[in-house]
Amino acid sequence: MAKANMDSSVSSRADVVIVGAGHGGAQCAIALRQNGFAGTVTVVGREPEFPYERPPLSKDYFAREKAFERLHIRPPAFWAEKDIDFLLGTQVDAVDPATKQLALSDGRSLGYGNLVWATGGDPRRLTCAGADLAGVHAVRTRADCDALMAEIDAGKHDIVVIGGGYIGLEAAAVLGKLGLNVTLLEALPRVLARVAGEELSGFYQQVHSDHGVDLRLNARVECLEGEKGQVTAVRLEGGERIPAEAVLVGIGIIPAVEPLILAGATGSNGVDVDAFCRTSLPDIYAIGDCAAFACDFAGGQVMRVESVQNAIDMASCVAKAICGDARPYKAFPWFWSNQYDLKLQTAGINVGFDETVVRGTPANRAFSVIYLKDGKIVAIDCVNSVKDYVQGRKLVEQGVRPDVAKLADLGTALKELVEA
What we know:
There is one protein chain. The protein is α/β, with parallel strands linked by helices. The protein has helices at residues 23-34, 76-81, 142-153, 166-177, 198-210, 258-262, 308-322, 386-398, 404-408, and strands spanning 13-19, 41-45, 84-88, 92-96, 101-104, 109-117, 121-123, 136-137, 158-162, 181-185, 214-216, 221-227, 230-236, 241-243, 246-249, 253-255, 271-272, 284-286, 291-295, 301-304, 334-339, 342-348, 355-361, 366-373, 376-383. Strands 1, 2, 3, 4, 5, 6 and 18 form a 7-stranded mixed beta sheet that branches. It has a 5-stranded parallel beta sheet with strand order 8-15-9-10-11, with helices on one face. α2 (76-81) links the parallel β2 (41-45) and β3 (84-88).
């Protein structure tokens, strides 16, 4: 099995140190070996687990449909076979770019030749009174999910979900399927307001309501109430009190980049990277949710892209660069979400869209929303419509300026609009 602790068998220096054992960190280690890198590789991970898939935490794993062992990105023995060391349950507290040393949470130091920062983000916490009560949970790690699942097993039934983004909606769907009393609170006028158009928001609002979720929009939390240190209710602005035996908070993440910023790396929303995923510090790269870059598919806007695709493709980009085959990061962005019997697939980024076209009928539970900016297709959301997704992503990649009437016509296959 791969070594999981810093002991006499793990060197105090590695040619490449990867901080973060999620999708990006794991893929970077794998890609280094695939590209012929023969130097030493050490992955530092805050959790005690070897790398595992994160999306199923709010879906299959949470619903007890997939055992944790099935979430491993690679079997633990794989890492030893590839001569990749792990320091698990360990955090990097500080980075010294001058000496190329990392200060670890156990008091030791770890030197590096190249450093890859793949830490993702920490769940954004509530700042209101009562936010630190027992029974208030996030869904970011296995431990987060296990804690909430244990409370449900102990009989807790009234669950309040705060946040109407994908994490909140996915969790609400699973909790509802478990037969629990679920209330979902969204502070904005609609769910998915930051990532989707009104058509998709309205559809998912109706779906969750139809499945028994008590969905509240424009619902701003004033505080959490509790007894004997345990949450008992969520109080909204205006005074309404919603009983809560447990609260799940899904209001986004905060990029985990503080040690890099303190070391002098540039960045205001995460850490800034160039076209090759390099930070402003020498021999230090950043990838995944914590890395802000000029996205070609968002008009060059500097942004973070929170997706498995982005983490994996950035990891491969960095591995090639370290192996002497540097190529600019140009990967195509795509996303997905599973809720109830609905599979949402998204291609592209709809930043700045000024027109939407609905293809199909939402009432039939199979349709697509196509986003255009200045007449050009920039993104597409497909609900239970795999054919539209496969064909539509080519339209996004090409930036096609189509006949809008043909876009909406189900009799016209999207592939017919692809430019030769």
